[in-house]
Fold this protein.
Amino acid sequence: MFRPDIVPQILPIPGGEVCLVFDDILLEPGRWRSRAAEFATQFEPPRHNAYPGRELRLPDTVTAALLDVLMPWLGRSFGITRIIDAYSRLSLVTLPPGQLSPAQSLCHRDRLQAKPGMLPLASVLYLFDEPSLGGTHFFRPRVEDAVLNRLLIDSNRMEAEPFFRHYGLARGYMTDSNAYFEKVLTVPARPNRMIVYPGMQFHSGDIARPEAMSPDPLLGRLTFNGFFSGLTV
């Protein structure tokens, strides 16, 4: 399933964090796309997150196999001593820009509810062949915490048009800096590349060609996403 003993490139994210980049991590990436196509009708809109598309939860055995490969690097790079919670899924971006909610039009963080002493981590494995479907952007806030928190709360509670008008933002995929966030790093997509990063780091998909998004796993922006919460003490 995964290449054993794979060694990542370690990219610094301005602000103090790092992103691990594992190239050619799957032994048979084409088989993953084919299997995803077989289960295309089982992809569903997300129930517990704001992902702008459809997703398919994967068996725990797949997550465990991924962690077997990643765990040494999670310890070295992030100080993780033990994984407490983890799951993985296949994902397809499908929403056109005009249908995005305010929260979906901003960069975001994963696993905000991690308990003290725990670090949330996330991973994205690009399963598509066309790099122009987009990698991942990382951002850091440009505003003080009070303004940032108000923006994030309002993005989930306000109606769309009043929100965009009040904050001077446009509906659509976030691919560049704005008044509230500075883009500090872009990791380009590459077939069979996986990135791993702290979930609390603001990020977004590099969806510069939303017209190219497709619900077909063989054509669209198919990714394998993992989410982990680990102890650091």
Q: What stands out?
A: DSSP finds four helices and ten strands in the chain. The chain has one domain: 9-118+139-231. The first strand starts at residue 9 and ends at 13. Residues 60-78 form the longest helix (19 residues).
